[in-house]
Predict the structure.
Amino acid sequence: MLGFRAKRRWSSTAAPLLLAAAALAGCGGSSHHRAPKPPGGDIATTLTPPNIPPGIHKIRHIVIIMQENRSFDSYFGTYPGADGIPGLAGNPGTIPCLPDPARGGCVSPYHDDQDMNMGGPHATKNARADVDGGKMDGFVGQQEHGRKGCAQTFNPACGSGGNGADVMGYHTGADIPNYWTYAKDFVLQDHMFESDLSWSLPSHLYMVSAWSARCTKRGDPMSCHSAIQNPQDPSTYLRFRAAGLDIRPPDYAWTDLTYLLHRYGVSWAYYVFKGTQPDCDNDAAMACSPVMQSAATPGIWNPLPYFDDVRQDGQLGNIQSLSDFFTAAKDGTLPAVSWITPNGHVSEHPPALVSAGQSYVTGLINAIMRSPDWDSTAIFLTWDDWGGFYDHVAPPTVDQEGYGLRVPALVISPYARQGYIDHQTLSFDAYLKFIEDDFLGGQRLDPRTDGRPDPRPDVREDEPILGNLESDFDFSQPPRPPVILPVNPPTDLVAPPPAATLGTGPLSTAIVGAAARYLGIKPRRLRAELRAGLTLREIARRHGVTLRLLRRAVLSQLAAAVERSLR
């Protein structure tokens, strides 16, 4: 028997009745917000639908923008009225001072005006050490420990230099003015916890399926079991395949939300910004080699291609390039549900610049606000995990996988309450709950009722502690006008020195040219891969050679060039 913690209160067969009633009441909308199709069997007319206010159906487009690796306190710890850093900005309590195992003494939160941050390791073991049984005092020690195991020469998040324990740094409204403006004009959620106590891949799995698991039998949902740290990693598979190893790709056999969206005729898209993703399956080392990502490339930020139900439903085409998002926004053809993931450069995942991420997000939001779909859209903006940065609020426990640490979160919509701070306990599961209530008549990812059973330990959307995002809206108000912000606002952030983007020292033009010729690529591509954080060893392996062979080839070419110049 499955060990569910939450009870379903109504049958999914009531969904068609609910949406039919909503349509008769004048709550319909565009073709993207269609009434659910019956999941099969007779409709139970004797069941009472859940209490879903008709106002929610004014939202016909939901856009989830997920950025990377920031804690709530690191971005909004001094925001007025929020549950921020104790002792600062009028917050109650004493300013914390966390132990510094390497140097002795302790480190207090400080204003960090650097555009490039380091952060800390953020695997499950690091999360538990950061939380330290609720004392929330392990962040400095974990950053110091993580840097010792960080061996990438060209990645500025590694090595012995930098800003010291910058996990204790926080940014202010002068540093990230657009994010604070969205908080002032719309809704800031100060108790949003990542769904899992872990890193990026499990968080993105939760974002689309309310579970992170590993399956022992391909294609068999019932063979899956919870995996908070090590679900099968697409990036690792792609690296092994590039190295010529014969391994099978990941297989996510459990059920994700797109299965229900497809079954109920609800449009969706997962937009991927082409570029790199800097994460890996060993976030205890703070960073790892970037790998390429695109709509056609599965990855830790794009896990949907490896879900069985996405392939079985013929929905791989819904995973699209970010350019398709801008086209849909401009044309007023946004799907009912959209997810948007960044590339490494604009992700805010260290060492990506904070300013680059804010500009990118502002561009996305401006595009939606300029869209014909703005008046019926809700934007949920959040960050996938805490990235090792300090936060003072201990996460609640709902099951063996979560919740994880607190992250920033905003709700932006013409129906969002203005200047409202939502203090409810929330997680990414609340996004799925809102989608299900709006478009699926309240049907959950519940193995007992969704038609595709798997052994997930609970129905996360029905956790009693989970708040309701409908509280962030005032559906009685007329739609509010857009708030178009500059994509490059004035900021107090201090840009890193130019050398920081290349690491410990750029290679000379001659060496880069010789290495590129041997590898069969152009010098500008080699420089781009080095700037992205790849080492020469990793680049050589990608092209099927060893670092030793590459060195010999480069030295041979340089020696030949010197000999020619002496003739």
